[in-house]
Amino acid sequence: MKTPADTGFAFPEWAYKPESSPGSRQIQLWHFILELLRKEEYHDVIAWQGDYGEFVIKDPDEVARLWGARKCKPQMNYDKLSRALRYYYNKRILHKTKGKRFTYKFNFNKLVLVNYPFIDMGSGRGVPQSAPPVPSGGTHFRFPPSTPSEVLSSTEELRSPGMFSSVGRRMARGSVSDCSDGTSTNSELEEAVGAEDRVGGPERAFRSLLPPRMPHESLFRVYGGAPNPGLPRPAPRVHPEPLSPFPISPLPGSGGLLAPTLSPALSMTPTPHLSYTPSPSMSSPMLGSHFSFNPEDMKHYLQAHTQSVYNYHLSPRAFLHYPNIVIPQPHRPTPEKPAAAHHLHGPPMPLSHSLSQQPGGGEEGHQHPSPFKFKLQPPPLGRKQREAGSSMAASSSSSSSQSSFTGSSQMTNSLLSRGPPNIKVEPISDIESEEDVEVTDISEEDEKNHNDENNEGSIFTPTAGHNNHHQLNNHHQANGNSSSPSAPLPQNNNPDDDPDDEVFKTPATPPIGGGGGLAFPLISLKSEPGSQAAPISPGGTRCIPLKLRFKRRWSKDQKMEADGERDEAEDKKVRAEGEEEAERRGSEVENGGGRGEGVILGLMLPPPPTQRRASSELQRATAQLSLENSGC
DNA sequence: GGCGGAACGT
DNA sequence: ACGTTCCGCC
């Protein structure tokens, strides 16, 4: 559809659809809420509160007014707004914090991230409201290229300012407009937006992303940055000015960033998958093991996130650690993937230049889009059906599984590449779900649950558990030992995939491949095989061309997806039965369930090639995010 | 305050 | 799909 080919990413509908996407023409309530949350000016009316993703509407009437202004619905009031919010329960975008008035909580697990990798929700427990969205560094993010498609299609676009320009215009325009109604309340937001317009260099933006604070780092198993295990949070958060959150500020070029900082998105989300899984998605090709991720993949992935970040200027938390991720492999010596390994240690990839390098460095590379797919949330069931159920029975009637999407992570390349990427992974005992582990918690702690909720989880997770373990082992071996030559990862991989798969998978970018676009994958492939050989071994196992690996993985993924869908269906049923609570927790669930849906962000793989939307969408969405304000 | 159905609009 | 509006119920 939209831009088909080009893109590599597919997102969940709600998350990214153009319409739903943040920037989309018609802003969605949750995007709007997020927007308010990230602006200090509105902290008196709405702010992050205690738990991760939890926010409180301090002034319901004002929030409603602002929302009404944005939507040109002067009649808006909290009662109506809250109704809209309640619809998000089913979608799993939000849930109500019981017992607290006007307090809701985002289920970031699944969602967002993609779009808003950086959001910082309250920073977890620790930080109450503040959650500054801004990434550290003061860098402000910029919107991405105007449209995803563009981005995807042409690598250059990302870099080129021109892209932005278009966006900027839109934004600008948007800001101005008022509702015909006469209520022009939106001015405030809009102003902010306007500020955003300015476009800086995209590149900078990337760099800028940094790792802000990591609240829960500990939570995550892996964190990259070896360097900063705990970032002291120096001054990480810079709040942007109220009005203009994203000033132009150029980043510090050089330094910025830790280059490494990768996408936070992951981190934030509870969902593990992404977070960490960088690999998986990417990994598909490479490693299967838990963590495996190729540097390349990671890069791509990260890049993608980064972009998102920019786009959204969300907060950084997400990033946490990507910079160098080290994976400890307690048990098995082998690292994940061969390729990865060397990448990590060794030579920076070509791609890397973009982010990793310094500003002057040059062009960034290319961010080729690679399609990922993610599955996000499960589709909510319609209650209608339920009703129907009376007659029909709620059974599963409709299947609306939107859950999957793909995204591509184009950008990641650079991220990882930076130097020696070390990825640190915390010990994984668990296994199985890397994913689970990874993310976990962040937010959730509070909730206990675990249970089910996961409906979502259910979606994906099929059997991962068992398999995973098994697989994992394999992976490890593969990686480390290489003893198992044949199957190093890819094949079996299911393992990694699985979880990851669900999480995100990366296809090889087939579609894209052709030609025009660049598929990053391709690139990576080339690079790998190339000279650097895998450290691994003689055995050569790993040598498998990435392409093949991807392919294999892909296939699996697809299968997986299929499973996933089924799960969803089940999910729905379950829900129907009643699991409200579960649902609520669902979000949190991630911990446990992990894999489930979340997926998050982006990483999941793409399913059928056909589906994948392009990355373009992604970008588009991001770009639009900013636009949202404009509204009416 | 909060929930969720229903009709309706886009 | 995604609300918006209205409304009854707890």
Automatic annotation (TrEMBL):
Entry GO MF terms: DNA-binding transcription factor activity, RNA polymerase II-specific; sequence-specific DNA binding
Membrane spanning residue stretches: none
SMART domains associated with the record: ETS
Localization per Swiss-Prot or TrEMBL: Nucleus
Biased composition range(s): Basic and acidic residues: 555-588
Annotated Acidic residues bias: 429-446
Biased composition (Polar residues): 177-187, 612-632
PROSITE patterns: ETS_DOMAIN_1, ETS_DOMAIN_2, ETS_DOMAIN_3
This protein's UniProt keywords: DNA-binding, Nucleus, Transcription, Transcription regulation
Name the UniProt record assigns to this protein: Ets2 repressor factor
A single Gene Ontology CC term: nucleus
Disordered, as annotated region: 174-200, 329-543, 555-632
GO biological process: cell differentiation; positive regulation of hemopoiesis
Keyword Aminoacyl-tRNA synthetase appears in the UniProt entry: no
Domain called ETS: residue spans: 27-107
Assigned protein family: Belongs to the ETS family.
InterPro entries assigned to the protein according to its UniProt record, in alphabetical order: Ets_dom, ETS_fam, WH-like_DNA-bd_sf, WH_DNA-bd_sf
Keyword set includes Endoplasmic reticulum: no
Residue ranges with Low complexity bias: 389-412
